[in-house]
């Protein structure tokens, strides 16, 4: 009874979602067919293959409606190799697919029936999203808890700050080890499966924007978001990724200037913003 009572407490639920996020990062960082890529790069480029698909390719329709939960890329590589084809998945895990609409394209078109038969066995759809291959799902869950906590009806700032802390932890892991495979090759190095994916920019936007909007006029929320970004920035080594975080920080600062009436509170927010600037300007993100 004690274990059940503890497990349903909100901080425990939030930590459990954070663990799901960490596992999702692990899965995307160690894809099941990585060993197939050892031969190097052979054949047409991804850009060329996608161009050919736009000119004429077979279409595989989704057999059922629901949220795409899981895809066995290694099995798709096998069937694509056997049929001498290339498969482009139109959806990523977490997307809602509609029965009868395009689920994948196949080049050459004559391989589409065989791929459709195999694809029906190598993916799972269901009524809900899962975190197995959907890194954005756990982020969305933490954000949803945070914005509900910040609603006037609930007014639970502590819970919102807890969610921000765990989002910070997740994004730190993303900077260090998130390395999803976009292109899956066979043993000879030929492109066989091209996936759809969420970008780093979109992932960061999902982690910050709704919370920033819900926390408008709340210095504690703004400062915690900026402090979290400062931690993440010390692990961020590319200019492109740093720019994404600075865009979010700039929006927080503008929101503070517009919505926080007390000068002392605005000064505290700016102090947190300036600490982020220093971390962002350090060589290699302060690493």
Summarize this entry quickly.
With 287 residues, the protein is α+β, with helices and mostly antiparallel strands.
Detailed description of the structure:
This protein is an alpha+beta fold and 287 residues long. It has two domains: 34-126, Pyrimidine nucleoside phosphorylase-like, C-terminal domain (Aldehyde Oxidoreductase, domain 3, Alpha-Beta Complex); 135-179 and 198-286. Helix content is 57%, strand content 11%. It has eleven helices and eight strands. The strands form two sheets. Strands 1-5-3-8-7 form a five-stranded mixed beta sheet, sandwiched between helices. Strand 7 (183-185) and strand 8 (191-194) form a beta hairpin. Helix 6 runs parallel beside helix 8 and helix 7 (157-177) runs parallel beside helix 9. The longest helix is centred in the middle third of the chain and has 21 residues, at 157-177. The protein is elongated. The protein starts with a helix and ends in a 6-residue tail after the last helix. Mean pLDDT is 90; it is low at 1-8.
